[in-house]
Hints:
By secondary structure, the chain is an alpha/beta fold. Helices cover 48% and strands 15% of the residues. The strands form two sheets. A five-stranded parallel sheet has the order 2-3-1-4-7, with helices on both faces. The protein has a two-stranded antiparallel ribbon with strand order 5-6. The longest helix is centred in the last third of the chain and has 24 residues. The chain starts with a strand and ends with a helix.
Amino acid sequence: MSKIIVLIGAPGAGKGTQARLLQERRGIPQISTGDMFREMKTLDTPLALEVQEIMASGKLISDDLTYKIVRERTSKPDIAGTYVLDGYPRTAVQAEQLEELAKEQGKEIQAIEVDLPKDELMKRLTGRRSCPVCGEIYNIYSKPPKVDGFCDAHPEVKLDQRADDIEDKVRVRLETYEELTRPLLDYYAKSGRLTKIDGTGEVEEIYSKLQAVL
């Protein structure tokens, strides 16, 4: 039976990277709500125009509208088999809506949490730096540049730090994630559909762990 793989992980846990690897190596489509919302800004469909209006007003996109977007995207022919959801569901309400979609599509739901200690998440996010020219990403703790603060390929270019990667903001992001996602993890754990994998280590190690539970 085809599956809907729900990847859950805090900011910095690396779930987006793992979802991309599943798509590249196993041909399992990655459905990212972040990507879909960005795409909506450029489309001219009734649904896209509704999303644009909400974004312009600064309001949050409702669970119902998010569900509509996910439902529309996953009903396209390229999503006939198993697919990975990255960034959805985020709440227990969205998880219940996804149950309906899974029934409709005849798929099973498998939830996987990429788990990482808070201090490791802090290092990954606050240590992140990027080159504004080539986009290369460094980390001052785990992958520092040869010269502190400058890109290896462009030694004259100073590395950037994202505004929301400052320590205070990271702490708020992680607390918000914990608060919103805990009920979601409980939801899947109660029905025996949650597997936890250790998110520490190299990208390839984590990918092997993910492969093992799939």
